[in-house]
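Entry:
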Amino acid sequence: MVTALVQAIARRDEADADEFRRVTRSAMARFAIPQWQRLAATFDQTAVEHGQPAAWA
């Protein structure tokens, strides 16, 4: 799911991608810290693997 989301935002313009990342970061803040950290790290790692910025944490 993370890979699909990262690939999908790569096809959007930068403003849309930034907004999606902002909203997702806001939603992730509702997780307990260990889960939030793992999820953010997964998004960052997947983004870098697909040539996107690591801007999820």
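Residues 1-33 form one domain.
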